[in-house]
Amino acid sequence: MSLSVRQGEIVGVVGESGSGKTSLARCVAGYRTATSGTVEIDGRVMTARRGPLDRRRVQMVFQDPYASLNPRMTVRQTLREPVVVHGLRAAGRVGERVEELVDLVGLDRRYLDSRPRQLSGGQRQRASIARALALEPEVLVADEPVSALDVSVQAMVLNLLADLRDRLGMSILFISHDIAVVSHLCDRVVVMSQGRVVETGAVDDVFLRPEHPYTRQLLGAVPPHPWSGHPPASPGTSRPDPSQ
C-alpha cells in the first residue's frame, strides 16, 4: 500500500477489523517496523530506530485513553514529563507550557492535579491528545480515538481535532472503522481491505460516488450517527465482501 498526507490535511483510513488499519498506524508512528517500504516526512526516511527528534515528529493517540495514561500520574505530571525530558522549555516555563496544553485541548485547569480515574472518558482523551501535543509533532496518528467514547462526546473530540489542525497546521492520519466519523472530520479517505488500498480520494467523491464494490458495500452496512450527515444503510445491504 502507499499513501500520502499533506501538511494541514486530515486523511481518514477506513475498513473492517483486520484490514490492516492499526498495523499501518503503528508503522507510521514508529511502534512497529514495516517488513518493507519506508515512512518519510518531507523526504526524510524515518528509520527503524528513530532518534528523539524523529520520534517527536509523529505522535499517536490511542483508542482507550484510560489504558494509555499512567494511572499513578496526575495530568500535570503526565504533561510535564515529555516537556522536561525533551528539553522543550526552560525549567521556569514548564508549568506555563503545561497550562497552555490543557487550554489548547479545552480541558479545565482544575483537572491538572487529577488522575485518570477521576476524569470522564472525554476528559481522558483530551489529556491524551495534550500529551501528544506536548512534543510538538508535525503528524498526529489517531487510532480509533473516539470509538471508546459516548456518542455525545465523540463530536466534541472530533471538533477538537479539526480545530487543532486549523490552529497548528498539523497533519492528521485518522484511523477508524466508522464511515460517519470519517465523513464528519476528514478531507480525504483511504479504504483498506486485507492490507491493501482498494480506493482513495476526497471524502465526498468516495462516499457519494464510490467506485469499488467493497467501498459500496461498506457504506451500505454502516448505520448513521445521530450527529452526522451520513445517509442510513440501504435495506437489505449485505455485509462487505473483502474478496471483491
Explain the overall architecture.
There is one protein chain. With 244 residues, this protein is of the alpha/beta class. It has a domain at 10-65 and 139-221: P-loop containing nucleotide triphosphate hydrolases (Rossmann fold, 3-Layer(aba) Sandwich), CATH 3.40.50. It has helices at 21-29, 52-57, 65-68, 75-85, 94-104, 121-133, 151-168, 179-185, 203-208, 213-221; strands at 10-14, 40-41, 44-45, 58-61, 139-143, 171-175, 188-193, 196-202. A hairpin with a 2-residue loop joins strand 7 (188-193) and strand 8. The longest helix is centred in the middle third of the chain and has 18 residues, at 151-168. The chain is globular and about 55 Å long. The two termini are 17 Å apart. Residues 230-244 have low confidence and may be disordered.
Write a brief caption for the model.
With 244 residues, this protein is α/β, with parallel strands linked by helices. The protein is built from ten helices and eight strands.
CATH superfamily of the domain at 10-65 and 139-221: P-loop containing nucleotide triphosphate hydrolases
Beta-strand fraction estimate: 5-15%
Task: Identify low-pLDDT runs.
Answer: 230-244
End-to-end distance, in Å? 17 Å
CATH architecture of the domain at 10-65 and 139-221: 3-Layer(aba) Sandwich
The side-by-side strand order for the widest beta sheet comes to 4-5-6-1-7-8
Number of strands: 8
Helix content range: 25-40%
Q: What integer value in Å does the Rg equal?
A: 18 Å
Mean pLDDT: 89
| Number of distinct helices | 10
Multimeric organization: single chain
Structural class: alpha/beta
CATH class of the domain at 10-65 and 139-221: Alpha Beta
Let me know the largest β-sheet.
Answer: 6 strands, mixed
At the fold tier of CATH, the topology name of the domain at 10-65 and 139-221 is: Rossmann fold
Approximate shape: globular
